[in-house]
Each structure stands twice: as structure tokens, then as C-alpha cells.
């Protein structure tokens, strides 16, 4: 019985997993941030430059980002540092003009320019890194386990049970009718 349940769950979950990884499998990829623009302060007409660049791409664990820049820097920061353009507590700092960041952990990773003014003008980037293995993506949090979609639905409401009884009544009426018809036909001389 238990193994049957496991099999049933497996059969329902497997297509979902396959669907979520339906993107063609590819090897690790290096993305050049900003394409030909590179990593620089955006003009006033392109403050969403890096968000748009990131929105059109999918980043996976194992991929890497190459930042090319002049007279600037790349800081990996936390979410707070990203939104406040705060450079005082970076996770890492690079200013060699050609920086490769390997994406090793799933989840968001935040980059800003070391120049707070450049950052405020849009020289910042958040990249959502996806894992290669969707199953391991669920965080080990036990605080609020997600409701599985196959959870047993609540007891049928009175409305739906009355619907069932209506159709049962209909079926019995139809059966009674057909019995009558058969009796009539057979009984006819
Ligand atoms: C923004 O303006 C600059 C000139 O200041 C221009 O070269 C560039 O093509 C513009 N970018 C966009 C996305 O319109
Ligand atoms: C480099 O950047 C600093 C601060 O952003 C600026 O004061 C300086 O003039 C820049 N140098 C060049 C060569 O662009
Ligand atoms: C940046 O954050 C630190 C605390 O982490 C704070 O002391 C500092 O004043 C902030 N700097 C700016 C420019 O907001």
C-alpha cells in the first residue's frame, strides 16, 4: 500500500520535474555583463540597463559572469547593500578591470559599483542563480513547509454532495423508465 502511494506520488511529481527542466541541457556558460556595453555607469536614458540584461538570461550554478570595466569596480554585496548602494560592507571587491565571478550557490547574488553614485545611477545588478537539480532547491526550512499540491482536498461541501444525489436520482429514474419500457415492449402482444 505504502509503495503504491510512493509510486503514485512519483508518477505525479516526475512530469512536473521534467517540465521544470524542459530547457535544453547545456554546459557551464560565461556571460559578459552588459554585452558590448560592459560594466559602466548607465546613461540617464538607460538606468535599467543591467536589470534588462539579466531579465533576458537564465543563470545556473556553474555559470560565470565576466565584468569588463575601466576606472571602476565590482562589489558583491548583500541585498541591503544593493538597494542602498552601500559599499561599506561588501562580500568581495574587485577592481582589476576584468573580473570573473563564478556562480556557485543558487539564489540571488547582488553586484554594485564601488562608486555609490554610479550605483545610484543604475550600475548595479542582481542575478537569480538557479540550481541544476530542482529537487534540492527547496530550502531545508521546517518553519512553514509548503503545502504539497496533491494534499487531500477538504471534505466535499453540501452543495457537491447534493449534486451527486441529484445525478444518482436521475440514474435511478432512468433505470426505472427503461425497465418500464422493456416491460411494455415484452408485455405487448
Ligand atoms: C542613450 O543615449 C546615448 C547618448 O547619450 C545614446 O548613444 C544611446 O544609444 C542611448 N541609449 C538608448 C538605449 O536609447
Ligand atoms: C576615475 O574615477 C574617479 C572617481 O569615480 C574620478 O575622480 C577620476 O577622474 C576617474 N579617472 C578617469 C581617468 O576617468
Ligand atoms: C552603510 O551601512 C553602514 C552599516 O552597515 C552604515 O554605518 C553607513 O553609514 C552606511 N553608509 C551609507 C553611505 O549609507
TrEMBL record:
It comes from the Eukaryota. Residues 29-131 form the Phytocyanin domain. InterPro entries: Cupredoxin, ENL_dom, Phytocyanin-like, Phytocyanin_dom. It is found in: Cell membrane. It is a lipid-anchor; GPI-anchor. Keywords: Cell membrane, Disulfide bond, Glycoprotein, GPI-anchor, Lipoprotein, Membrane, Signal. One of its GO terms (cellular component) is side of membrane. The keyword Transport does not apply. The keyword Disulfide bond applies. Residues 1-19 form the signal peptide. It holds the Pfam family Cu_bind_like. PANTHER family: BLUE COPPER PROTEIN, EARLY NODULIN-LIKE PROTEIN 7. Belongs to the early nodulin-like (ENODL) family. This is Phytocyanin domain-containing protein.
Amino acid at each position: 500500500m505504502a509503495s503504491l502511494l510512493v509510486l503514485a506520488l512519483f508518477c505525479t511529481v516526475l512530469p512536473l520535474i521534467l517540465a521544470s527542466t524542459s530547457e535544453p541541457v547545456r554546459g557551464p556558460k560565461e556571460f559578459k555583463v552588459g554585452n558590448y556595453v560592459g560594466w559602466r555607469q548607465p546613461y540617464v536614458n538607460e538606468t535599467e540597463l543591467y536589470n534588462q540584461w539579466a531579465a533576458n538570461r537564465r543563470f545556473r550554478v556553474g555559470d560565470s559572469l565576466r565584468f569588463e570595466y575601466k576606472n571602476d569596480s565590482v562589489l558583491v554585496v548583500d541585498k541591503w547593500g544593493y538597494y542602498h548602494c552601500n559599499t561599506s560592507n561588501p562580500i568581495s571587491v574587485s577592481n582589476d578591470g576584468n573580473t570573473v565571478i563564478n556562480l556557485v550557490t543558487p539564489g540571488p547574488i547582488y553586484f554594485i559599483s564601488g562608486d555609490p553614485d554610479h550605483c545610484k545611477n543604475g550600475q548595479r545588478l542582481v542575478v537569480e542563480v538557479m540550481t541544476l537539480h530542482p529537487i534540492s532547491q527547496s530550502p531545508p526550512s521546517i518553519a512553514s513547509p509548503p503545502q504539497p499540491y496533491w494534499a487531500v482536498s477538504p471534505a466535499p461541501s453540501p452543495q457537491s454532495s447534493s449534486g451527486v444525489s441529484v445525478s444518482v436520482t436521475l440514474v435511478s429514474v432512468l433505470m426505472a423508465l427503461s425497465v418500464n419500457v422493456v416491460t411494455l415492449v415484452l408485455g405487448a402482444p
